[in-house]
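Form 7-S
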Amino acid sequence: MLLIKDFEVRTLPDKGKGVFATRDIPAGTIIGDYLGMIVPNEDVHEEEQGLYAMLLNDQLSILANPTESGIHLINHSCEPNCGMYPLGDHTVYFARRKIFRGEELAVSYTIGQPDEECNPCRHICMCGFPSCRGSLHCSDPELNAFFAFERAALAKQKGRYGRYIFEVGKKLEPLASYPKNINDHEIYQLFAVRGKPAYKLTGKPTLAAIRACIRQEGRPCKIPARGITVLAIVGKELRVIVSS
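Output:
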């Protein structure tokens, strides 16, 4: 389910369908909730159904309908502008940073390392960014860090969004309400839009200030005092694209 109104679903040459913003979207905005049919994990078959299943727990998944509009149509990217966040038993997507009109919405699928069933591997990334890994898979440390973040986030919610008894074959229903936005966290990698004019930061800004700049402006951050322009922040690492 998409919770934003200004979007357009397009068919892309190599990636099937994709979702594009038709207006600027502020950082933190909730994009939508991953809804669909509740099915046993053993009934998820990517080769037949495509990548339209979201893991719910150790036994169940949410299988979305590809003919319907929803966040399940949002493609993977190695430089995502959307992030995943747990609300009880629901997973919402939100804007990691400002998303510009005309941009494709993209998220990291956070798929673990290939197993014996992933042979040959079908999880090929087509995002086309210079940093593309060529794969939808992420490292075990990255996956474990995200799971730890999810557990901490759910503990802070204290059951506010409920825990449910699920029925196989039934649709996961939307929440009664959603927060207005999702706060930033260092677990989310931030990538500015390549080619946009850099936003100038004066003095010697902290990592938090640089992160806030990229998140709110969506553009690279130029720091003349340090002689750098920052494209991205990955953990506590600055990724510099050009000398200022």
